[in-house]
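Work Package 3 (structural annotation) set out to generate three-dimensional models for the target panel prioritized at the project kickoff. During this period the team completed the workflow that converts sequence records into discrete structure tokens, so that structures can be stored uniformly alongside our sequence database. As a representative example, we reproduce one entry of 279 residues exactly as it appears in the project archive.
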Amino acid sequence: MMGKRFPGPSLLKTSLAYLLTLAALSASSASAMACAQLRTVEGGVVAEVTDGDTLVLDDGQVVRLIGTQAPKLPLGRENYPTWPLAPEAKAALGELAGGKEVLLGYGGEEIDRYGRHVAHVFVATAEGSLWVQQAMIGKGLARVYSFPDNRACLDLLLAAEGEARRAGLGIWRDPYYSVRQADAPGDLLARAGHYELVEGRVLLADKSGGRVYLNFGKYWKEDFTVVIEAPALRLFAGDEFDPLALDGALIRVRGWVDNRDGPRIEVTHPEQIEVLAER
């Protein structure tokens, strides 16, 4: 049954019906509703756009657009490939924010390990405040990419991503960014080391040794698996989201694919899982 949730409010946040409702709201009203909890400060003028999710302000402050991952450029890294549509993403961010004064909104950890400010970015326009993350995702030039210590506003970003994906905008036209299928472990192994969206039906949800495993096939050493460790389980409990209730559910999970007894993704916070349907 589409859109029905398991017990707990966090599944409502990621249900299809809820995301569609949010997507139908105007960008300005939706931003205000979702991001009212942010601590906002004046950021200054954008002096440089580094890539599709990084800005440099006129005081030298580097700002990473939290909640998004745009196609990547090499940026001096040897033998690092340019991801499809990376130049287009950089150009789009430049059009949205380049040379403009911005507000920064903080909803979690504010400085990352590289010394960058991690913030939501807002630009004043004639139509009102433009939420840059939502605009980039809505154009199909970034996807949702989140952290356990920075979870504010993700519901609306997921809604914008869903709309762009259904419309086939930007990256969603390119096979490089295709949503992968959980029942194709060989294809997923080929994407080890990549950030991916994977859809499939959970064959078995089980807890063992303080962690939860979501198994998508009968052969757990070969098939795709989602692993939720103890620190993440505490976040799930805080959201009243029981991952064991996902047994038999059709879900979409996002994260970095690794190869440990077959392809797997480690989930560190609830927003990495979207519930598409129950059993």
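The longest helix spans residues 154-167.
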